[in-house]
Amino acid sequence: MAGSFRWVAVRCLALLIGLASTLSAGAMPEGFELGDGSVGPTCANYLGMGPMAWRQRGGDWVDAKGQPHGQRPFSTMDVARGQGRPFVEMDLTPLLRAWQAQPRLPHIVVLRSVGQSAAGSDVIEFHSRESSDITARPLLKVTLKGGSRLRLTPAADTFLDCSSLSSLGRRAELKTGGDRSVLLRFELPKNLAEIESAALLLSSDKQYGASAQTIGSFALKPAFSEAHEPRQGLAAAAPADRGLEGHPDVLFTAGFEESAWLARFGELTLRGDAESIDADKAGGFVSLFGRALKVTMRRGKNLGLDLRYRFARHGQAEPQELYFRYYLRFAKDWNPSGDGGKLPGIAGTYGKAGWGMRKPDGFNGWSVRGGFARRPADDPTVTRLSGLVSYAYHVDQSDNSGAVFGWGEGLSGVLSNERWYCVEQFVRLNDPGQRNGIVRAWVDGSQVLEQGGLRFRDTDKLAIEEVWLDVYHGGVAPAPHDLTLYIDNVVIARRYIGPTMAVSAH
Q1: How far apart are CA 131 and CA 110, in angstroms?
Q2: Sequence-distant (≥ 6) Cβ neighbours of residue 199 within 8 angstroms
Q3: Which residues of 279-310 are buried (b: 16+ CB within 10 A; e: fewer)?
Q4: Tens-place pLDDT, residues 356-388
Q5: Which has fewest Cβ within 10 Å: 18, 230, 326, 377?
Q6: Total domain count for the chain?
Q7: Is 47 exposed, middle or buried (0-12, 13-18, 19+ CB in 10 A)?
């Protein structure tokens, strides 16, 4: 009763003083632009670091009628065969108008064959920005209001070909024809209203097939252009999470403020390299609400943290579904160039299966941890960025290692160094023997993952055993250098938690 009263009092206080939520929605993750490097777009993914998948293999676009994957181009151009090197020009002003009207659409041109050209196997090769012939590279001619002109080369260009699993952005050519798409990104003036018209100039040395092909322009529409509105939860009425511990739906909280913070987890399961801190200038640490847990994976080692909250050890029933939220900040030195790894999540391994190549059989265990993807050192488009995923051990996984679910829905799980993020995960176990388990994830209150149809168990003797604060490099490959992150404001609950109020620093 006393706990419920404290919760109501804190909630009323928050409403009375009018604290504003720090939730924000955006069309694209902070610092992220589609590139053409090693983790650039492929047939399957708009970002290979995660991976973050297209909704449809071969890429996502909208046509001039606003139809996803429609066939009404904004403009067209014809490319004839056998005329030496044709220089062709396409009026992109209609596409420019769409960008002006829909700010969430990225400024990326999609070129595809249309009409009879799209039905065949004909191919046109245009010179890319990597072409050795500088005069043949793509060029965007922009006319501004008032008559001044700009000539822009692509900031990135690539093509999607479903016969390849790799990014093709470093090729000297751009291929279109059949189901292939060409993608070109230009860095336009920030105020698009200043632009009067735009025209794309391309050149081609090689054309295969019909005597002429028609190429149409479309607008790119990746998943992050449909960002979900941030969702508020239990924490919206609890400034700095104060009072959450008294809410009847909250099972556990930890802020790492007290010297005996480890004892709150109930058992000395901590291994690795972790400590409660209030300052770390070298790592670029900025306090969220006081102290936080600093976790480091040392060079040549794998483990940074292995800390668990087991429900049975605290006299609590093991739940069938659960929300788990924590705040995460990657330090200055965070650069997982060697391999990806594991982050905190939810599990029921019971010491038998569901991790470490121990495949679930429906009766021995399961897990859904978070994870981070490898950040290739040779791709400057993702410098300081990390792609987050869910790493799940479930009965129907294809091999002994877990399944990876990229956080690519809405405002995607691409996180930047030196910024606090609210990370929340949800697991609902399946009814024994059925494929109706669910995994969800949110970043800063925006949903980034919805994965259903999962089978974790074939017996009700398996439940949610624990929340697992796991930070691990690999696989088996050790960290190539020190990698540091910070964790704060852990909350475990029966209901959606969401971001807290009045975040002091990002």
Answers
A1: 19
A2: 89, 90, 91, 92, 93, 140, 141
A3: ebeebbbbbbbebbbbbbbbeebbbbbbbbbb
A4: 999 999 999 999 999 999 999 999 889 999 999
A5: 18
A6: 2
A7: buried
Domain carrying residue 73: 45-226
pTM of the model: 0.89
| Cα gap 213→175, rounded to integer Å | 13
By mean pLDDT, which of 216-225, 293-302, 429-438, 446-455 is the weakest? 216-225
Residue 119 lies in a domain: yes
Asked if 170 and 277 sit in the same domain, the reply is: no
Assign 105 a pLDDT band (cuts: 50, 70, 90): confident
Give residue 401's identity as a one-letter amino acid code: S
CATH for 386: 2.60.120.200
**Measured between alpha carbons, how far is 128 from 133 in angstroms, rounded to an integer?**
9
Query: Residues 241, 491: contact at Cβ < 8 Å?
Result: yes
Backbone angles phi, psi at 409, to 5 degrees: -90, 135
Nearest to 123 by CA among 131, 134, 135, 111: 111
Q: Quick one: tokens of 226?
A: 């449909």
Tokens 């405002």: give the residue.
411
Q: Which of 409, 411, 407 is nearest to 371 (CA)?
A: 407
Instruction: Decide: 106 and 34 in contact? Cβ < 8 Å.
Output: yes
> How does pLDDT run across 233-243, given as a tens digit for each residue?
999 999 999 99
